[in-house]
Amino acid sequence: MKDALPAAAAIELIHAFSLVHDDLPAMDNDDLRRGQPTLHIHAGQAMAILAGDVMMSLAFEFISEATLEASQRVALAAELARATTAMIAGQVYDTLGGFEPGADTRERLELIHQHKTAALIRAACRMGAICGQASAGQLQAITLYGETTGLMFQIVDDLLDITQSAEHIGKATGKDETAGKLTYPRLYGEGGSRKEIERLRKAAHESLAKFGQAAGPLGDLCDRMAIRTK
Amino acid sequence: MKDALPAAAAIELIHAFSLVHDDLPAMDNDDLRRGQPTLHIHAGQAMAILAGDVMMSLAFEFISEATLEASQRVALAAELARATTAMIAGQVYDTLGGFEPGADTRERLELIHQHKTAALIRAACRMGAICGQASAGQLQAITLYGETTGLMFQIVDDLLDITQSAEHIGKATGKDETAGKLTYPRLYGEGGSRKEIERLRKAAHESLAKFGQAAGPLGDLCDRMAIRTK
């Protein structure tokens, strides 16, 4: 599906934008990413801010210039823009708080996870479906797959932060704990987290049922996300 | 033209995004904007970075959800994305340099002006024309108007930086001079700059000729931009 390439590139650009800006000293202040110095360490803060900015604008350039129907390009831009807004809101919740004082911690955690991680994975799944001119039913099924794997991804990420070394996963670990961040393991323990990962993994597989063999790679991807160690 | 409102809001969001990020300590490090504390002074750097980010994603959300033809929405998104990329490139040139050592200073100055300021004014003009379903000839004329007024706007801005007080224009002045920035007055003097403003003002009016009376407000806007003192 050659026509889906600009959409895939756009998603990767939005992902990279969020990592580069989240790593900034004023935000998560991370020096290490994938075993390499983060961009603001490598090229300075001004360049990291501007590079993140241009990744976002280029993402929308790629989509609007793709060789797809105008209606598809509009749908893709809407999906990606909403997911990007959601991710930024998730970072606001995660970095700056801003919840009501009495807000339930489980609800807060869900809010952070859904916005910060699941929104882009959900959008990536839906954007692929839009490129493939999926039916309404197919789009609904793939949306569910994206939402469940998106949540699962973040719980696995939170677990790795407390169970793996920085050398192994290529970025600082134990930071959530130190910062007193609201994470799944902190709220439900390691065992509870692993149970929830398994529940979501199964739900993701069920959402793929209607696609039969064709969705094999998506099932495999979900399984690999569940057991990854970095 | 009710349908043009989301496009107008999107342009204003991109403008605000660029101001908020350009004001950051790692960039132009400005404390004052329109007589008020800049956003990072008021709400902290993390919030200023995230607010700028979300302004950009919201701009593309607004456009993709507008009640216009899909082909118009795609054209609007493409215009705005390209202009945003150009503005960010302009900020890279302006803040970080990165020109070839032997590059001609006049060419450098033109490059900065065209990217940093003229690109968004040009896009704003073209996006209005797209909302109004302008013909190819009309679009060409309004593009020329946007390019000439855009360049004129920046030369006026550079002049104000050296001729007006911070109290009067509501932001720090004399900063270009101190930073040794490449500006029109520095290269061509105050007199040369005023001559160029007048040349561009006339060119902008000529570009509007084919619209007759209907373009009266655009002619007035250009005149006001030429003589503004803040």
Uncertain parts of chain A: none
Oligomer: homodimer
CATH topology of the largest domain in chain A: Farnesyl Diphosphate Synthase
Query: What is the element string of chain A, with H for helices and E for strands?
Result: HEEHHHHHHHHH
Task: Please identify the structural class of chain A as seen in this structure.
Answer: mainly alpha
CATH architecture of the largest domain in chain A: Orthogonal Bundle
Number of helices of chain A: 10
List the helices and strands and how they pair.
Two copies of one chain form a homodimer.
Chain A: H1 5-22, E1 32-33, E2 36-37, H2 39-43, H3 45-64, H4 70-96, H5 105-131, H6 136-163, H7 166-169, H8 175-178, H9 184-207, H10 216-227
Helix pairs in contact in A: 1-3, 1-4, 1-5, 4-5, 5-6, 6-9, 6-10, 9-10
Task: Give a short overview.
With 230 residues, chain A is an all-alpha fold. Chain A is built from 10 helices and 2 strands, in the order αββααααααααα. In chain A, strand 1 (32-33) and strand 2 form a beta hairpin.
What does this structure look like?
Chain A is mainly alpha-helical and 230 residues long. Chain A folds into two domains: 104 residues, Farnesyl Diphosphate Synthase, CATH 1.10.600; 97 residues, no CATH class. Helices cover 73% and strands 2% of the residues of chain A. Chain A is built from ten helices and two strands. Chain A has a two-stranded antiparallel ribbon with strand order 1-2. In chain A, helix 1 packs parallel to helix 4 and helix 9 runs antiparallel to helix 10. The longest helix of chain A has 28 residues. The two termini of chain A are 29 Å apart. The model of chain A has no long low-confidence stretch (mean pLDDT 91). The interface between A and B is large, with 41 and 41 residues.
